[in-house]
Amino acid sequence: MSIRFAAPPAACRVRMTPARVQACHPVAANDNGGSPGNSHLSAALRHFARHGIAAALHAREQAIAAGRAGDRQTFEWWLEVCRALDRRMARAIVSPITSSAG
Questions:
Q1: Which of 86, 30, 79 is CA-nearest to residue 53?
Q2: CA distance 36 to 83
Q3: C-alpha of 96 from chain center
Q4: For 69-87, what is each residue's pLDDT tens digit?
């Protein structure tokens, strides 16, 4: 015996207009705000393509190494890349530059 699926009758079909959908959900559910800039995001995606699941850890290590070397600009870059990949990991990074200055 075969099983056939039939489309529901027209009276049962419910469609929302795009305007009504946007009115119900004005912001994406996964939009946490504070998203990284496009350059950091594309760098994070390239970094992920190269390093896979360990990309955030590698970016963290690069940020810490730059911080220890006193290179503030490189530290900030890798911190933003790490933040794009893993916010909690990036939040846990303490800058050796700022912590030794105080």
A1: 86
A2: 8
A3: 25
A4: 999 999 999 999 999 999 9
